[in-house]
Amino acid sequence: MKFYFDLLSQPSRALYIFLKVTKTPVEFVKIDLKRLEHLTNEFKAVNRFQKVPCIVDNGFKLSESVAIFRYLMQSNPNISENWYPKDAKSRALVDEFLEYQHIGVRYPCAIYFQTKWLLPTFSGKPPNEKKVREYENLMIKSLDTFENIWLASDQKEFLATKEISFADILACCELEQPRMADFDTFKDRPRLKKWHEKVKKETNPYYDEAHKNVYDIIQSKGKLSSKFDLVFIYRYLRYIKFKKFFE
Amino acid sequence: MKFYFDLLSQPSRALYIFLKVTKTPVEFVKIDLKRLEHLTNEFKAVNRFQKVPCIVDNGFKLSESVAIFRYLMQSNPNISENWYPKDAKSRALVDEFLEYQHIGVRYPCAIYFQTKWLLPTFSGKPPNEKKVREYENLMIKSLDTFENIWLASDQKEFLATKEISFADILACCELEQPRMADFDTFKDRPRLKKWHEKVKKETNPYYDEAHKNVYDIIQSKGKLSSKFDLVFIYRYLRYIKFKKFFE
Predict the structure, then answer these.
(1) In which domain, by residue range, is B231 found?
(2) Which terminal CB of chain B, N or C, has fewer other CB atoms within 10 Å?
(3) Is A244 within a domain?
(4) A192 min Cα distance to partner chain B (Å)
């Protein structure tokens, strides 16, 4: 099985950590988003949506991180059950978060990151402050729900269950993203902070390995290091302007 | 098992149709969103997120339509396999769409509907035309992806598989929503139109039954019938203004 990924993508990092921690045998294939490798015709033949992460398992093509995770669990009976419990009720609680997080966590964190950091970094123009405030409010609401509802139970060490599950890894990776835009999602929310530390502890050294570039950008307060190739950033900018996604 | 729903909610309709078509034994409990029944403390004890749909199965509480669907499949081995195939690859293809649709279909259609129709209807103020155009473009992109990628295969009669699956019901219910804002999502896209007719045919009379109120609003070109209780609409408005979700 080939796993196509780029560690700049949150769900790519989540699956990377999961595959490494569980020692699942796959071939890691890096698709460099900065170099627009996802836009080639060659990669279109791998994933018709031209996104990472995705897999090809002996000719079978699949995208969407959560779908890939479930397929990995079903195809590798040796992976420990804690990641996706077999018991119907525990499994449903993991599923509940995995479905919730798309619009409940991923969207607010990603749109904030894109508006505050990604588009201004690529375009050289200051961020749209009105939109930044709007999306910051949406993200804060999401973080409060995380702190006060998802992490409210004393019965559970982790998000959905007593042991760590894939829900925890996926959520952490999404919550790291806005930190590159200088917003510390884990700060001033004691349950969130404690839970984040536990997830890191359970998944290291792979958690930190997957977040190396992310940590670099956080430490430089959002500034790009010279390792980022400007030529490709400008090409990337042309591409996202063309898509009009952020405008 | 108790199933809490309101047919104004897209995923409530999807699960309602699924439960009726498969004759799954549940107790249907209507939570009237217009009467703010989801905001009572009584309902908060049922679902901490105060949203529909949700279920309570002998004390076990679960929200998120796709998680509920998977739990229903695991708890009712008599439900026909076509809705969620057991074979790992076919199941993964259904999962791929179920995960994609949150941000790929549900979000663009719902935010357009809310901006163009829901907020103006409740507030009495004209829609924000700039935002309507922005969200319309996002929705059109989503519909084009539906027509040209998801429905491109000649090998499949339905979205993910040869037979109808839950992915088809869920997608149709999301695509009905913008029609209440006078945008016909099924028009001028021949594959989408044909597929919609097939899904209706496979799930009727329950599809039409679940969409009765939706059809009424579509036919009246977005105008509310006198059946909608204005007092509660104003209270609902106060609530959504308070939440600042649409602003």
Answers:
(1) 88-237
(2) C
(3) no
(4) 18
